[in-house]
Design a protein that fits this description.
transmembrane; membrane; transmembrane helix
Length: 143
């Protein structure tokens, strides 16, 4: 049987971890996440350097793996592990991360507050930083 309080707690913990890593990457160098920025911002700056690309992959690969594996590992602590629980538990844990990403990181931080550390040099003042629709469409696509 699904334990919804466990799913919620694990989803929120994973969301907090997700937010910390993403904000850390943005503070260090917002260009590490250049591919996640609106197209017009991407086109107005040079492509990632090879160093930025390597660092993005070095952080992104283990980060993505952990985000995908952690919900499955937490399923092992469920009282009953049926096929349905093994499928739904990680799915529901991960489903919590997506709206947190949309509301907290994309809409609140990126669009509403827009702190200087996430602005890529040479793009300050671009209207795409306030494009709520771009982030909502990305959320619907699952990116």
């Amino acid at each position: 049987m699904l334990n919804f309080s466990q799913i919620f707690i694990e989803g929120m913990l994973l969301s907090i971890f997700f937010c910390i890593v993403i904000v850390g990457m943005l503070v260090y160098n917002p260009r590490l996440l250049l591919n996640d920025y609106p197209q017009s911002i991407q086109l107005s700056v040079p492509p990632k350097t090879s160093k930025e690309t390597k660092l993005s992959k070095a952080i992104g690969a283990p980060f993505a793996a952990l985000l995908m594996i952690a919900p499955f590992i937490s399923t092992l602590y469920c009282d009953e592990i049926s096929f349905m629980v093994a499928f739904l538990h990680p799915f529901l844990v991960f489903i919590i991360v997506s709206p947190v990403d949309l509301v907290v990181l994309d809409w609140l931080m990126f669009c509403f507050i827009t702190p200087d550390f996430l602005i890529i040099p040479g793009t300050k003042g671009m209207s795409e930083y306030k494009n709520y629709r771009f982030h909502f469409i990305a959320f619907l696509k699952g990116t």
